[in-house]
Specification:
The protein is mainly beta. The chain has one domain: Methylamine Dehydrogenase, Chain H, CATH 2.130.10. It has 6 helices and 27 strands. A 6-stranded mixed beta sheet has the order 1-2-20-19-18-17, with no helix packed on it.
């Protein structure tokens, strides 16, 4: 059964934050009830955009992607670079992180209003234009793990969760912090830093992104979610506007008091390894109309359903892992095997598929005699399994 319940909550805040009572909506979701179907039943259109492969543009895997009116902007962990491609897939420019002494973070954000790509190197914020040229840099007081642009003057970031020299023991820090014109503003969602320990006893996964921000093409709005809970927060420059709490069956859920029972990250990780089907995080959060897109994260790598579309109006639940490629997609994969939805522009959602998977799927479906569009005909005739990934543009049938 799928249904939702609304309740009132009060936003926890710092002294510089705002005071606001907001509505949280509980969404009861059972992955076993999620339906699938053919690609043509779930999507209005499916388009493949191969990213141009040249000596300068060659990279391995998309770590993060942002979509603008004119460009696909992607980052690559292996090369530490950010690459800009036109919407046609043609390569435009590149920000080579190896040219910076400390490298640059591949967890970038795009200021859509000013046309800037913003990232950091240690405690310095860098702003680049779409030509890949550095146009501005400024110091920041705290190293963040993830950042997003709300508007031309406001960034939000989430600091690393462990103790640092600048944070006193047993003190309060905040998962969400606003930078307005480079000055610290509102701080939301407090936590005790001792709960998370020190870098020495944290795994790589724990230190990467305690919170994730997602832009759905809605101006001045973001969705975000954090580790060890299944809350989704709708954020604007004013603060938190709405909260969705996804409630899963008991077998897939952390204990209600898990943070109290498992106060350290090490204890939590030990518990999750023994309970690998429990959902401890959400990612890939996008909102198109009434459709909420999300991916569940659990320790098990064998989960048959991970990426879902939930209709907030009809309560219909779709698992993208159950959607079969058909004539619309030329029988080619809609998602990479270990991939997810990596972007949204308010009309389309985007995934990526490696060239290796594309060519494997082509060879496996020759008996279906697919009718490839011209862009794929050229791709398969000029590229190979080692070429750049392919972006898949999906228009949900809302």
């Amino acid at each position: 059964m799928l249904f939702s319940v609304e309740q009132k909550i009060v936003v926890a805040q710092s002294s510089v934050s705002y005071s606001k009572t907001l509505t949280t909506r509980k969404l009861y979701i059972n992955p076993e009830y999620a339906r699938g179907g053919l690609d043509s039943q779930i999507f209005k259109s499916v388009n493949f955009i191969p990213l141009e492969t040249t000596k300068e543009s060659l990279f391995g895997k998309i770590t993060k992607m942002e979509v603008t009116d004119s460009y696909y902007i992607v980052s690559d962990q292996n090369t530490g670079s950010i690459l800009i491609f036109y919407k046609t897939g043609k390569f435009k420019s590149k920000i080579d992180g190896r040219k910076f002494e400390r490298g640059i973070s591949v967890d970038f954000t795009v200021d859509q209003e000013q046309g800037l790509i913003i990232t950091r190197s240690f405690k310095t914020l860098f702003s680049f234009n779409f030509e890949g040229e550095l146009v501005k840099q400024s110091p920041i007081n705290e190293i963040y793990s993830t950042v997003a642009s709300l508007n031309a003057s406001t960034l939000v970031y989430s600091p690393f969760i462990y103790l640092t020299n600048s944070i006193k023991k047993d003190s309060t820090n905040y998962f969400i912090k606003f930078l307005k014109d480079a000055s610290l503003g509102k701080q939301l969602l407090p936590f005790n830093v001792l709960q998370y320990g020190t870098p020495a006893n944290l795994s790589t996964m724990d230190t990467q992104k305690p919170y994730h921000f997602y832009y759905s093409g809605i101006k001045n709005r973001l969705l975000f979610a954090g580790n060890y809970n299944t809350n989704i927060y709708d954020l604007s420059s004013s603060g938190i506007e709405n909260t969705y709490t996804l409630v899963f069956p008991k077998a897939n859920s952390l204990p209600p008091d898990s943070i109290a029972i498992l106060p350290s990250v090490v204890e939590m990780q030990t518990y999750l390894k023994k309970n690998e089907n429990q959902i401890f995080n959400l990612r890939g959060l996008y909102l198109i109309g009434n459709s909420l897109h999300f991916e569940t994260v659990m320790t098990s790598l064998m989960a048959k359903d991970r990426y879902f579309i939930y209709n907030l109006k009809t309560q219909d639940l779709i698992s993208l892992n159950k959607v079969s490629p058909g004539i619309m997609s030329s029988y080619l994969p809609l998602l990479s095997y270990y991939g997810s939805i990596v972007g949204c522009d308010g009309k389309y959602i985007y995934s990526t598929v490696s060239s290796l998977e594309m060519f494997q799927a082509k060879e496996a479906t020759t008996d279906k005699k697919p009718n490839y569009p011209p862009i794929l005909q050229e791709y398969f005739s000029t590229q190979d399994r080692k070429s750049n990934p392919v972006i898949v543009q999906l228009q949900p049938a809302l």
